[in-house]
Amino acid sequence: MKNFIKIVGGVALCLAFAGASSAADFQASMSKCLTKHANTRDAAMVMLECTADAGKLSGCKVLEDNKAGKGFDKAALCVAEALPMGTKTGTVKVPMRFPGGA
């Protein structure tokens, strides 16, 4: 299931700072969120805007969803709950790309 989900932009940098164990936990959360809310065969792009504080994201809202009504907005919001943010604080935009697969 790892190959079904890729995060782009700042999200990739967050994982680099999070460490191997946290990255594995995050990958499991991503898989769970996508499977629960959207079709893993479909591709989608979602842009969130969230508040980063104390290493976590809160108050996320969907700014863009190129597959509206397909559940990727819910999957992205679910993923954001588990996304490690390190020391970043303030309002952040979080781009997510779900590439789909077989």
Distance between the termini: 10 Å
Structural class: alpha+beta
Q: Name the overall outline.
A: globular
Radius of gyration, CA atoms, in whole angstroms: 12 Å
Oligomeric state of the chains? single chain
What is the number of helical segments per DSSP (H or I, 4+ residues)? 3
Give the key terms:
single chain, 102 residues, alpha+beta, 4-stranded antiparallel beta sheet, 37% helix, disordered N terminus
Describe the structure.
With 102 residues, the protein is an alpha+beta fold. It has helices at 10-18, 20-37, 72-82, and strands at 6-7, 44-53, 56-65, 90-98. It is 37% helix and 30% strand. β2 and β3 (56-65) form a beta hairpin. α2 (20-37) packs antiparallel against α3. The chain is globular and about 35 Å long. The chain starts with 5 loop residues before the first strand and ends with a strand.
Short structural description:
The protein has 102 residues and is an alpha+beta fold.
Strands, helices and their partners?
Layout: E1 6-7, H1 10-18, H2 20-37, E2 44-53, E3 56-65, H3 72-82, E4 90-98
Antiparallel strand pairs: 1-4, 2-3, 2-4
Helix pairs in contact: 2-3
